[in-house]
Amino acid sequence: MPAVLTIATTPYYDQKPGTSGLRKRVPVFRQHNYLENFVQAIFDSIDAPAGATLALGGDGRYYNREAIQIILKMAAANGFGRVLVGAGGILSTPAASCVIRKYATFGGIILSASHNPGGPDGDFGIKYNTANGGPAPEKITESIFECSRQISQYRIIDAPDVALDSIAEHTIGKMAVSVIDPVADYADLMESLFDFSAIRALLAGGFRIKFDAMHAVNGPYAREIFINRLGAPEDSLMNCTPLPDFGNGHPDPNLTYARELVDILYGEHAPDFGAASDGDGDRNMILGRHFFVTPSDSLAILTANAKLVPGYRAGLAGVARSMPTSAAADRVAKELGIPCYETPTGWKFFGNLMDADKVTLCGEESFGTGSSHIREKDGLWAVLFWLNIIAARKQSVEAVTREHWAHFGRNVYSRHDYEAIPTEAANSVMKHLKDSFGSLPGQKLGSYTVDVCDDFSYTDPVDNSVSTGQGIRVIFTDGSRIVFRLSGTGTEGATLRVYLEAYDPDIANHHLDAQVALSELIVIAGQLSELKARTGREQPTVIT
Ligand code: G16
Fold first, then answer.
1. Are 4 and 157 in contact (CB under 8 A)?
2. What is the 3-state secondary structure (H, E, C) of 92-146?
3. 114 a catalytic residue
C-alpha cells in the first residue's frame, strides 16, 4: 500500500474564490504547493465522510492533466472512497454537474477558468461543487478561504500517476478511480429533454447550423450530439478539437472573441443558425443569419416558448435572472403568471431557488442560460433549446425574436466592459457613484429622470443569507437602468462592467442597433461615473 504523506506547507493569502471559484494565472498555480494548499482547504472545509465519492474533471486547458493527478492522490490521502474522473481529465462544467447529480456523489471538483484564455501564461481555475451539482455557496467558499489562510500541512499519497486516457477502473491506495466517458451521460440527459427527432428532421430538411466550440471542451460533446445523434453534416462544426491553449484564442462566446463565427453568420451564404460556447462549455452565444440574440432576450424567449420543448411541457415553476440581466424575462413571467427572481451575479445564487423548486429556468447577461436539469449554466442545452423551438415554430431566429419583441416590447440592452484597469481607478469610480446616491434621485438627465439608486443586496428567500455590495443600480422612472459592477472573474487589475438597459415598446424602433438605441444612456453613464477622467479609458474593451 503506498504511503500517505503529510507535507508541511505555509499559506498563500490570495486564495479567495471569486464569482466562480479560484482563478489565477498558470504560473501562480504552479508555485510551490499552491494548488495543494487550495485542494486541502477544500477537503478541510467540506467534511466529507470517509469513503465518499467525488467527481473530477476539467476543461482540458493547460495544467489540467497535472492538476488532476495531484487532486486524485490528495483525494485518496484524505479518505475518499472513489473518484469519478472524465477520460483525459475532461468534463465540461455542465457535464460535471450532470455526473454529480446522476451518480449522487458527495461533490465535485471542476478545473476551469471558464472563458479566460489558457496556455502556460494563461489562466487556470478550480472550484468545488456540492452534492446538488452546483457551485458551492458563499458559506463554503468563505470557509475554504479561511482554511487556506491557516493551512500548515496537506495530505497526499505517494503513488504513480493514473492512466486517464481510456475508460477503466484503477486504484490509488484504498481509493477507486473510475475513468468514465465524459460525454455519454450528458448527451443522454440532453436527449431526454429535447425533441431530437424534430431537430433531426429540421437539419435533414436543409436548415444549416454552425457550432463553434472555440477549441475548448465542448468539441467532443458537440460532435456526439450534432453529428452522431442529430445527423448534422460535418461542416456544421468548427474549432471542435480541444487544445490546451484554445489555439491561442480567447474562448469567450461573444461578438468580439467569437469573431470568426460572427463573420460567417454575417457573411454571404450564411448558415441559418450559429452558436458558440466557452472554455468549459457553460456559456453560449446564439446567432441567426445576420442576427445576434442578446443573452437577456434569449432567456426571455426560452421562457416564453418552453411549452414547445418536451422537458418543459409541464410548465415552469418560475424563472430567475441575475440583477444586471435585462428585465425581458420578467415581462414573460408576468404574462405566464410565474414568479421571477432577481439574484446577484453568479450561478451559485440560483441553486437554492432550483433546489426549492421555485424556478425552472435561469439566465444571466454574461452568456449563461440553464435550467434545473443540472445546477450549472449549460451552453449546448441553450443551443438545443433554440433548435427545438425553431423546429417547432418553423421560423428563423430573427423572426422568433422580432415576434417576441412585438408582443412583449424590447428591453434594449448592452454591456460595456473596461478590462484590466488599475484597481484603485475602478474603486474610485465605484466610490464616486456611491457618494452621489444622496443627490441623484429626482435629477433629470437628458430625457431620463433618476428614480432610485442603490448598491444591490440580496436576501436569499430559501436560507435568508444576505449578500451585499452586488453592484450599483441607477434606475430611471421609465424602468431604464444603468448598472455599474466590478467583475469577480478577472485575473488582471479590475474589470468594470457598465450594463445599459432601456425598454422600448414601440415596434417602429425595434430595428435599431442597440448602441444607437442606447446612445443617450451611454453618455449619461459616462457623466455619472466620470469614467474617462478616473480611468483614462476612452472606449470599452468589449461591447456585448
Ligand atoms: C461566471 C459565473 C457567472 C457570472 C460570470 C461573470 O461565469 O458563473 O454566474 O455571470 O462569471 O461574472 P463577473 O461579471 O463577476 O465576471 P463563468 O462562465 O466565468 O464561470
1. yes
2. CHHHHHHHHHHCCCCEEEEECCCCCCCCCCCEEEEEEECCCCCECCHHHHHHHHH
3. yes
Helix/strand/coil for 438: coil
Q: Counting atoms of ligand 1 from 1, which one is nearest the CA of 488?
A: 15
Atom of ligand 1 nearest to the CA of 21: 20
The whole-angstrom separation of Cα 514 and Cα 102 is 41
Average pLDDT, integer, range 410-438: 94
Domain boundary, last residue among 356, 373, 408: 408
Segment 93-115 shows an average pLDDT of: 97
Q: Are residues 245 and 365 in the same domain?
A: yes
Task: Tell whether pTM > 0.85.
Answer: yes
Can you give the residue range of the structural domain that contains 195?
186-408
| pLDDT at residue number 133 | 97
Q: What is the pLDDT of residues 344-388, one digit of tens each?
A: 999 888 999 999 999 999 999 999 999 999 999 999 999 999 999
Grid coordinates given for 69: 493527478
CA distances from residue 307 to 188, 278, 389 in whole angstroms, order as listed:
21, 28, 9
Residue type, 51: G
Q: Are residues 169 and 196 in the same domain?
A: no
Give the pLDDT confidence score for residue 69 in this predicted structure.
98
Report how far apart the first and last C-alpha atoms of the chain are (Å, whole number).
55
Q: What's the number of CA atoms in the CB half-sphere (13 Å) around residue 77?
A: 23
Residues with CB under 6 A from ligand 1: 19-20, 114-115, 278, 282-283, 322, 345-347, 364, 366, 368, 487-489, 497
> Does the structure show a pLDDT above 90 at 492?
no
The whole-angstrom separation of Cα 157 and Cα 80 is 12
Measured between alpha carbons, how far is 484 from 498 in angstroms, rounded to an integer? 5
